[in-house]
């Protein structure tokens, strides 16, 4: 890796930021990076030293096997150590750090009239009461608790209460349908579900309790949060957990269509989310940090709850939408709380860009120091708008590449150290060793493009798929023995910068939400009049990618049922999976062995007429028919 000498426009870190930064220049990054790879033991031990350990580790900081031919895949961090996540992110600050009166969260509701402030001491007290409630309900160490809540403080309280008593939380994004929720509860075999009666998203009321349970209140089973919390004591001894005990399960889309329960564990996740938060956002005690993600996704787990709290940070917790009640809501909130670090998704930036600069001019954004993005590749145009209009040319943009599976950032700039190129996630974080492989698993050097893999674990990487170690090994380690396979394509340029090129499996990314074509196809197939369905992605100006569905009906004479199909996908998966296009297809292009040629469908969806070789198709005429009909759908 060298300091880039490039002709393209680079964005260098502002000197004011470098003065007081944790990693103040590129050379410091290189030195620390080298140490993290050459001596991971010393590097991670130093990180662990600031946390509380009921019992110290007896084993090394990290052990692993990434080679299936040599035995089971495993990662083990700090064997023998005992600790508690909740103690480290709350009690430690209140009792040892004197941060009791510091604001943990400024909660801002869907309506600007609803807001509240929660200090570290208040949060600890709520968490202990909730922990006692869960215990009283019979929840024990290792039991699973499903959480289906909107972005309200109770969500953070519940997750930390689970962590305190050693229960494993499984949060389900509150935009998912009842079927998706049900599937996740069943897989995790949760004994308790924590939900809300309802929530407003913009103008729309979502009845979460009704979605959770079509039957009304059951007095034998259900209890009201306020009633049980009121009577619950506010002290609760933390459960001292083994370093490798599970902390949570979070479901992510699998390419077969069935969601996978990604498991993260206590000690490694604590070290990694804490360190990435500190360095990637160059955190300082007087910062006000705001991540706009939902806690139902990994971004919220790592960078709204655990990473910020581990650092004693003050965060904004936002329940609402970027455009409600007006399109300047984000900018209004930044001004209101004097936000210094702001972390959002490219899809939100592209949405807000559409309204031009006018909505921003009304607000004072001079508090901002660092901007971040996550979830999907950011196009350079959106990057520049973010940098110039939102950050007023003053704030570095950290484009953080990572996954539910990685637990925290793996490729990312450090704001005071890394010269930026719009659209590149730049370089690996400490302890992370990327490689680019070709189809045969050969490592490619220099300027190249191929499969993005990682050679070694870092403390925050997933440990397994819940109750399915075999699927875990097959999904991430079978293709290239010795490497963790991300499923993303990647390019490395002449300056050593990494550029994510998108998924190379049957997954797609709609507004930063990863989903598999198979799960949408399965949802369509559930409809009785559908005989076959194939789903591909198509570029979309705001969402990045959108869903284009080809549907073959059992009875060809049936009239257009697009609206019905769209509705059934929303019912089955949730509104995030709403198809943008449904094309009625009399037949699908298939090979002679019957395999659907997705490449061709993708080209039809994108109206790319140069289809290349069609000789492997059983019936090439189908393609022409689909092209001719296309205008009706698109
Ligand atoms: O394809 C990559 C894309 O999002 C995928 C991971 O999705 P998920 O597990 O839902 O986690 C999203 C939040 C971390 C990746 O495999 N992705 C994520 N961040 C970026 C990205 N693609 C390009 N650039 C990014 N910064």
Describe this structure in words.
It is an enzyme of class 6 (ligase). GO terms for molecular function: acetate-CoA ligase activity; AMP binding; ATP binding; propionate-CoA ligase activity. This is Acetyl-coenzyme A synthetase. Its EC number is 6.2.1.1. A hairpin with a 2-residue loop joins strand 24 (about 505-510) and strand 25. This protein is about 30% helix and about 20% strand. The protein has a 7-stranded mixed beta sheet with strand order 5-4-15-14-16-17-18, sandwiched between helices. The chain binds adenosine-5'-monophosphate-propyl ester (PRX). Adenosine-5'-monophosphate-propyl ester binds near residues 299 and 400.
Morphology: globular
Q: Could you tell me the strand content as a percent range?
A: 15-25%
Mean pLDDT: 94
Tell me the number of strands.
28
Tally of separate helices? 20
Measured between the Cα atoms of the first and last residue, the distance is: 45 Å
Radius of gyration: 24 Å
Strand order within the widest sheet? Answer: 5-4-15-14-16-17-18
User: Helix/strand/pairing class, anyone?
Assistant: alpha/beta
Strand count, sense and barrel status of the largest sheet are: 7 strands, mixed
The helix content is 25-40%
Assembly form of the protein:
single chain
Bound molecules: adenosine-5'-monophosphate-propyl ester
Which residue ranges are poorly predicted, with pLDDT under 50 across at least 5 consecutive positions?
1-6
Organism: Nothobranchius furzeri
Catalytic activity: propanoate + ATP + CoA = propanoyl-CoA + AMP + diphosphate; acetate + ATP + CoA = acetyl-CoA + AMP + diphosphate
Family: Belongs to the ATP-dependent AMP-binding enzyme family.
Enzyme class: ligase
